[in-house]
Amino acid sequence: MARSRSSSSPKQPATKSDAYVGLLFISLLAQVVAAVFFYLDWSSYPDAKPKPPSPVSVQVVLPGGPAAP
After folding, report:
1. What are the structural domain ranges in the chain?
2. From its phi and psi, is residue 62 left (phi > 0), alpha (psi between -120 and 50) or beta?
3. What is the mean pLDDT of residues 45-52?
C-alpha cells in the first residue's frame, strides 16, 4: 500500500528572518512616513485657484531723453 505524502515527508524547518527582512520593514516605514509628509504638504495649499494678475501699464524711456520740439 502506498504511503501518503503528508505522513512521510519530513517537516520543513521554519525560515528565520534575516537582515533583509529588517530592511523591508524599514523601507515600508520610510514610505509611510513619506506619504504622511506628502499629505501634510499637499493639504497646506489653498483650495481655490489664484486670481490672474491685473494688467500693468509700462512706460518705456528711450535713451537720449525726450525729443526736442
Report:
1. 19-46
2. beta
3. 83
At 42, the amino acid letter reads W
> What is the amino acid identity at position 17?
S
CA 53, 56, 62, 65 dihedral sign is negative
Pick from 30, 14, 32, 34: which is nearest to 22 by CA?
30
54, exposed or middle or buried, with CB in 10 Å at 0-12, 13-18, 19+?
exposed
Alpha helices in 1-69 (DSSP H): 5-8, 19-43
What H or E segment, with its residue span, contains residue 65?
none
Q: What sign results for the dihedral spanned by CA atoms 8, 10, 14, 18? A: negative
pTM above the 0.70 mark? no
Residue 53: its pLDDT value, please? 80
